[in-house]
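Q: Entry one of two.
A:
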Amino acid sequence: MEEQNGAVNNGGARRRGCTFQRNDFFPEESFKNWNNYSRAFLETPFRLKDRVLTRSSDQTELVEVKSRSNHEMKKTLNWWDLMWFGIGAVIGSGIFVLTGLEAREQAGPAVVLSYVVSGISALLSVFCYTEFAVEIPVAGGSFAYLRVELGDFVAFIAAGNILLEYVIGGAAVARSWTSYFATLCNKNPDDFRIIVHKMSSDYNHLDPIAIGVLIAITILAVYSTKGSSIFNYIASVFHLIVIAFIIIAGLTKANTDNYSPFAPFKVRGVFHASAVLFFAYVGFDAVSTMAEETKNPARDIPIGLVGSMIVTTFAYCLMAVTLCLMQPYQNIDINAPFSVAFSAVGMDWAKYIVALGALKGMSTVLLVSAVGQARYLTHIARTHMMPPWFAHVDERTGTPINATISMLAATAVIAFFTDLGILSNLLSISTLFIFMLVALALLVRRYYASGVTTKVNQIKLIVSLVLILGSSAAISAYWATSDGWIGFAIAVPLWFIGTAFLCIGVPKAKEPKLWGVPMVPWLPSLSIAINIFLLGSIDKKSFIRFGVWTGFLLVYYLFLGLHASYDTAKEFDQRKNNTVEVDKVWSKVEEGFDEGEVSKVPVST
């Protein structure tokens, strides 16, 4: 089997990374010819069972899988870079666009509480991501973590939604970029869009400016990770100065009468808004994919991730308070809320500063997203669940060029057509689903180790996790369908019992070597509960779109991804076994066995 781009093929010649031969995409044995594929397809049930039950290992992800890109990513980042990447990744269109939308239509001035709820959920997820990123510092992020703890199949379903999250998130930010650019030019956003009246209203506002922005971001992301970091740092500093200006200048025009009523849509509105505003926190997971390029992961990742999330949450809450004090929530503009708010209070000149700051912020979000999503796709392709062509790392730049260009091309297509409201809801589903799985994987990591955890403790672990997941789902479903309290009175104690039973009744199988989440299992269990709860606040159409995408992933996996990853895994196992057997031979030689004795040691080929 030929290795992917840039590798040495069977004939010894080195192939270029950006070729488009069939073997660049499907070099595995199952795809050599139709007979091979037919035999592989007939083995689908057996292969699926193998991939569902097989888990990777830390060492495999850190060494063998990483080596499939042929060239190393350059270790150029420290905690300062990561913290600014985190700030740059998160503070973008969520705060500058969705705050106005959710304050006006869902939460009113209580939108600040929506940000608090989303922020707590995001911070819990940050803790889980941080432990994994420190222990398994590879470009695969949550895909690699899930592959180690929950197996290939779950990891692939999550991986597909990770890629969807990035494509949709980038598209949403790119379209928001156009809105604020229009404000800067004293125009309506639709003045820069092409409206096709014969298409659905959700898809007929074509956005060519979004395409141009994404092309510029692609060039920078491909050129250099450190160069991207420097640009991000400069842009993020400017961005924070603008945020400080918005808060200080806005509060000078505060009117406390605008805070009454505080929660016009009641508690339900606060949580509905919180589920959508989770979009505003998306991006920190991209920072975890940079662990492979971090000089000292054990020190840099916790400081960078947790520090950036605390700064971001604090800034979000202050900005939400400021906006709702400047204008009655009914009058907030849903496209450019802060710019219009300054115009409404007689500071029309300030809207240009706000628009420029928003554009800077969105540019850094797009940049960090481009860097992160390419590294996700690179690591997924290293396992051959996606074609290995995407795993190529350029020798000169040390960046995954193929993955970067491909992901941003997909983002550009979506950004060209799709309305922001559709994008933000669908994005929140994918994100909450993945964060829930990462928290679940952390519990499995701490309480299960093959060969260490007894059968009895395995059963206890499964019972505990079923209670935690089931009660969390029940809370979410009851919230979505009822205004009563009886369901909560049953489901909340069940969640507490499940978590307490895991804490008291199941011994830990593993402790983190370098940095660990505090208060395990309570914090990961709470993360699971909050993420599932917020899922219950998202609209039905978004779940239908999510289901269609997941169905597409299953079809791709069963017909292509399963067989490619199965062949790759078995080839790796064979190579590893051969290495072990050769080592046995050499150890016998070193111990002084004669040649005839050594020749009896079997070595498979």
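Q: Entry two of two.
A:
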Amino acid sequence: MASVGTSNLGVLAEVMGFPHQELSVVMIKKFNLARKQLLRQNITFSCNRKTGITRAIAPEATKVTGPTLSSVPLANYVPVYVMLPLDVISIDNVFRDQGKCEKQFKELREAGVDGIMVDVWWGIVEANGPGLYDWSAYRSLFQLVRKIGLKIQAIMSFHQCGGNIGDDVFIPIPKWVLAIGENNPDIFYTNRTGTRNKECLSLAVDNQPLFEGRTAIQIYSDYMRSFRENMSDFLEAGSIVDIEVGLGPAGELRYPSYTQSQGWKFPGIGEFQCYDKYMRTDFKEAATKAGHSECDLPDDAGTYNNVPAETGFFGPNGTYLTEKGKFFLTWYSNKLLLHGDQILDEANKAFLGCKVKLSAKVAGIHWWYKDASHAAELTAGFYNLDNRDGYRPIARMLSRHYGTFNFTCLEMRNSEHPAYAKSGPQELVQQVLSVGWKENIDVAGENALSRYDGYAYNQILLNARPNGINKNGPPELKMAGLTYLRLSEKLLQSRNFRTFKTFVKKMHADLDYCPEYEKPAPLGRSKGEISMDELLKATQRTKPFPWDEQTDARIGSLLAEYWDRLLNKFFLSN
């Protein structure tokens, strides 16, 4: 996934670059004393030596707080979906382990989970040649999901699986597309040194007829139309309720500016990805038309693992503050907006009249958010500064397609990250969710990395209903849904799953599972095009909506959460 660098709270400590630490003798004595005091309160501890996760476990592991809400209006209910494993459909287009999946799906259903989300890989379905689609394995999967009684969120995954945080399998884009790229590598995103990224097609070829006479946009459109035709029974039955449209690497609307397979490590600023011949030509034409023919693409923005101050572009009084820098960043981010708008328009036409929602995912790039340059956001295509909103134009673009803004890193807190990374996930989430609500669109989200602890779940619960549950009607602010990443044996371990079930119940505002909650209206045609001038008016910064200090639907006691946080500060992976 895109949003990385959670700290040592049991998740990818190595990504953060923290050294292994040993508790001092004094600290061990203090810890043992505190442990004895907590044991008297019937609080126990669990330490997984493989992951290093040490957790304070309240009695029965599912103690919850908050009001009893049997009479709470259904409008407080936030549906919960679970992302399936990346290779639930194998690279050779086979639905393997059906018996195992059926057992796991039943457990999810019994836990009150509303549905599943699954990548529908372009590299699997259209692997055999242009326009040759094989949906059979996905049909088998969807039949099982429908049988169990779960809803489906289907991702149109026009990207490679592999190369990003959390990718443990490799599924390339179709071989026939890669073959075209052998002769014309400029169809791929390219950094300043000429390194190509084959994870997805460059947005620069959206309208270039380079693929057996088709443009990239036509490829995506044909794929989605074929999906509708071949999955019509699931769409008509209401089993598929959401189509998430892949718009870039990891399925997200962004440039592939921070790719592990190219050497990026947290918290590197990443690199601009606009140096293929098509992007170069487009930029030069745009600069000339605007009377800036002297402008060229940046040559002072550093490399993947630089920090802002090490570069001329992002450092104090850097190029990003000059007229030249502003022109480039506006062009770079506008190209991303137009790319998303065009593909979503095709998605709207493909699924017109279906009872589904369209959604698009945006990466939660939280590192360097508290640096004046917001460098990591800028290289990814989000022109977001302290005095400029880089996310509201995206929300406004989505509004014309009745789209849902799906955001990541909902589980993260600032305190989980090293100070040198200048991370601000809490403020970032608050900003992004607020602009979605201000544009009157649905906002949904995901956790960026798998977490099983109440500390993370409580942060998600806070973001899901920032001002709490309303006993008298709809909450003032509420997310439209949450997709938990991801289904695994570890999630289903008894202690983890008990806590997860409580989390689902709290997302539902303590209401019973409601299978009829997700019933989208027939998708209407996208509204008229929004001019770029109108989209750019949305860059004016406004104050985000206020958030409560804590969720009113807490899992576990404050004491247990405190020890979850404190103990994991010291116990790292072995």
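A: Comment on entry two: The longest helix spans residues 323-350. The chain has 17 helices and twelve strands.
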